[in-house]
Design brief:
The complex is a heterodimer of chains A (227) and B (476). With 227 residues, chain A is of the alpha/beta class. Chain A has 8 helices and 11 strands. Chain A has 2 domains: 118 residues, Response regulator (Rossmann fold, 3-Layer(aba) Sandwich), CATH 3.40.50.2300; 98 residues, Orthogonal Bundle (Arc Repressor Mutant, subunit A), CATH 1.10.10. The radius of gyration of chain A is 20 Å and the shape is elongated. Chain A is 40% helix and 21% strand. In chain A, β4, α4 and β5 form a beta-alpha-beta unit. By secondary structure, chain B is of the alpha+beta class. Helices cover 54% and strands 15% of the residues of chain B. In chain B, strands 6-8-9-11-10 form a 5-stranded mixed beta sheet. In chain B, strands 2-1-4-3 form a 4-stranded antiparallel beta sheet. In chain B, strands 5-7 form a two-stranded antiparallel ribbon. The two termini of chain B are 45 Å apart. Classes of the chains: A alpha/beta (227), B alpha+beta (476). The interface between A and B is medium-sized, with 27 and 39 residues.
Chain lengths: 227, 476
């Protein structure tokens, strides 16, 4: 996927470039609004990462030019201002999502993934059966089983497992899990998600030799088969 | 106090001080649409006018009455004189016309500045006093016409006209009128000057207060206004101003304390980050060891980011951000969502949970859930193992909804209760922070969310139960 990153903070831009490239994207990098506007409007990108405070033309200006040119390239706004007004203004002007600095890279990656998937034709998403190794999930009957053994999960544990399974191989942060599974849109200062994951792991992994649910320290959790 | 040394770098909170000093500093000046005036000028003018009106009315009435009395006295005087003339003429007439004339001539000096005219019955003039000219010129004469019975004379009677000049009385009246007018004006002027002086003198305490207010700067917010002998009317102002200063000083102290706390809270993780990174770089390390350092740094930095985000949230709330309320919803239903989120930790801590009561309110749902989640996290940390945590929701009579989380456990010192919602406040430092991401802003955020919903916080600790919660206005 081709991404355009418009960010004037050189260090942050370089780290975004490195991180996104390592995750399989082709990334173009510009450091000011005027160049950003030219590339966003004229280039062919799958996603634009747009900082709000830019020299030349600010993020809103770039966004306005992009939408005025009838391009519906998804735009992810990066902003240091947490103000609600800025977010609302950004979304109203046609941004698809926003991230407030400081953000975790895993968070950014998850949002980029979600935006890119939005453009892709629905296919695998519609599946009612999910499988990973000997783990099987039936989303309709809401049953989970591993090695033919039924797993006794609560409703939220099932939802958590389904999310991890659908996004297998991706590191999902605690914030993202709290948001997606429990609809809690804030950074909780409790260890609620850790405990919930621990309890899920006790049912999912503890009775079996092969572990599927892994903790990535400092970043979150990932569901994958590791040999 | 006036030390300009190291304390000079403490910046005053400009908008707070400007707001406090603003309305007081415009005394005696024209600002915007409204123009000010001097109380002394206005009051003295009003008093002078009032004095002059009262004296004027009083003097006019008095003068009118004196004039009436004078006229009455003159009339009586004229009547008495006429009677005397009647008597004298009547008696002299018995000796004939010549005797009458002789008698009137000899009495003439007694009738100075008066004029007597006597006519026979046939209308011919019998007698007239001299100096008629003077008398006719005067505007203040009184005239009496009368008949005198004279049986001895032809026709049996004579007709007399007696004219008396009261010009002296009238002149005296006019003089007095002028004196009274002068007294009235003089009294007005005196009252004006006196009132002006007294009012100015009386307002000296106000100028004193203004000077004292001007002397209060950001560095000596502890100063209060005081007068040696304060007027009763000024006391409420002084008390209110001092109460305002008290609040301002408290807020300022809290802000300064908060800044210090922030610096302290940031310094610890920064120290760890710098030290750990330096140590990792100081010699050759294995990849695993370096990864460990990076992961540890990441966790530390996430804690910092969380703290910065929370502080940003608090500062937005401080600057008056209000909740974006949604549709009216059942608070118990929202509470159940939060409980579901905390299910695992509650079970881990061996706690049961009950949601009691309900209220309908239009709230900012994410914020409401955040506040309740913080309260629940707090209760989970401090509740006695095996006990039940209770979320009590009630609609209050004053239009507010109250949400309280109650847990059994160690009582909180009553002195600490009011400070529970302060930033970075920890009732008991030893009880908290077993490596969690908790950093002492949770309850401050609850208070901010309550404020954003026009509500306030509540806290109580007795009988082994601690209740902490907040209220919120059910409608904007």
């Amino acid at each position: 996927m081709r991404l355009l990153v418009v960010e004037d903070e050189v260090k942050l831009a370089q780290y975004l470039h490195k991180g996104l490239t390592e995750n399989g994207h082709v990334v173009d990098l510009v450091h000011d609004g005027i160049e950003g506007r030219r590339l966003a409007v004229g280039g062919d990108y799958d996603l634009v990462l747009l900082d709000l405070m830019l020299p030349g033309v600010d993020g809103f200006g770039v966004l306005a030019a992009l939408r005025a040119a009838q391009r519906n390239t998804p735009v992810l706004m990066l902003t240091a201002r947490g103000q609600v007004e800025d977010r609302v203004r950004g979304l109203e002007q046609g941004a698809d999502d926003y991230l407030v600095k400081p953000f975790a890279f895993s968070e950014l990656l998850a949002r980029v993934g979600a935006l890119l998937r939005r453009g892709a034709p629905a296919g695998a998403q519609a599946a009612t059966q999910l499988q990973l190794g000997d783990l099987e999930l039936d989303l309709v009957s809401r049953k989970a089983q591993r090695a033919q053994q039924r797993l006794d999960l609560t409703a939220k544990e099932f939802k958590l497992l389904a999310l991890l399974l659908r996004r297998r191989g991706q590191i999902l942060s605690r914030t993202l899990l709290a948001e997606q599974v429990w609809d809690m849109n804030f950074d909780s200062d409790t260890n609620v998600v850790e405990v919930a994951v621990r309890r899920l792991r006790a049912k999912l992994d503890d009775p079996f030799p092969a572990k599927l649910l892994h903790t990535v320290r400092g970043m979150g959790y990932v569901l994958e088969e590791r040999s | 106090m006036s030390n300009e040394g190291p304390t000079a770098q403490v910046l005053p909170p400009p908008e707070v001080l400007a707001a406090a000093a603003g309305p007081l500093s415009v005394m005696g000046a024209c600002s915007g649409v409204t123009c000010s005036h001097a109380i002394s000028t206005r009051l003295s003018r009003k008093l002078a006018i009032f004095t002059m009106v009262v004296l004027g009315v009083l003097f006019t009435v008095t003068w009118g009455m004196v004039k009436m009395i004078l006229v009455e006295r003159n009339t009586a005087d004229l009547a008495a004189r006429s009677e005397l003339i009647t008597d004298v003429v009547g008696r002299a007439a018995n000796q004939g016309e010549a005797a009458v004339l002789a008698r009137l001539m000899s009495d003439a000096p007694m009738r100075a500045s008066t004029r007597l005219e006597v006519w026979r019955a046939d209308g011919s003039l019998l007698f007239a006093d001299q100096d008629a000219e003077n008398l006719h010129r005067s505007a203040h004469t009184q005239v009496k016409v009368f008949t005198i019975e004279t049986p001895a004379l032809a026709g049996g009677q004579v007709k007399a006209r007696y004219t008396v000049d009261y010009a002296r009385d009238a002149a005296m009246g006019t003089r007095w009128a002028w004196v009274l007018i002068f007294v009235t004006l003089a009294a007005g002027a005196l009252v004006a000057a006196g009132a002006r002086w007294h009012v100015r003198h009386g307002l000296i305490p106000l100028r004193e207060l203004a000077a004292q207010t001007r002397a209060i700067s950001a560095r000596d917010l502890h100063r209060r206004l005081a007068l040696v002998d304060p007027a009763e009317e000024l006391l409420p102002w002084i008390e209110q101003f001092n109460a305002l200063m008290q609040r301002l000083e408290g807020a300022y102290a809290q802000l300064e304390g908060f800044n210090a706390d922030v610096a302290h809270e940031l310094r610890t993780p920064l120290t760890t980050l710098i030290g750990q990174t330096e140590l990792a770089l100081s010699r050759e390390r294995s990849v695993d060891s370096l990864r460990d350092t990076l992961v540890s740094n990441l966790e530390e930095m996430q804690r910092l980011a969380g703290m910065v985000n929370d502080m940003l949230f608090l500062s937005q709330a401080d600057r008056g951000a209000v909740a974006r309320r949604g549709r009216p919803a059942s608070l118990a239903a929202l509470a159940h969502q939060v409980v579901e989120f905390h299910e695992a930790t509650l079970e881990d801590a061996g706690l049961a949970l009950r949601v009691q009561g309900d209220a309908t309110a239009a709230v900012d749902e994410p914020l409401f859930k955040r506040a309740l989640s913080n309260l629940l996290g707090n209760a989970t940390r401090f509740a006695r193992r095996g006990s039940t945590v209770l979320i009590h929701i009630a609609a209050r009579a004053d239009g507010q909804a109250q949400v309280v989380v109650m847990n059994s456990g160690e009582p909180i010192d009553p002195k600490s209760l009011p400070r529970l919602f302060d930033r970075f406040f920890r009732a008991d430092a030893s009880r908290c922070c077993d490596g969690e991401t908790h950093h002492g802003l949770g309850l401050a955020i609850v208070a901010a969310i309550a404020r954003m919903h026009d509500g306030h916080t509540v806290a109580e600790s007795q009988g082994g139960f601690t209740s902490v919660g907040f209220t919120l206005a059910t409608t904007p």
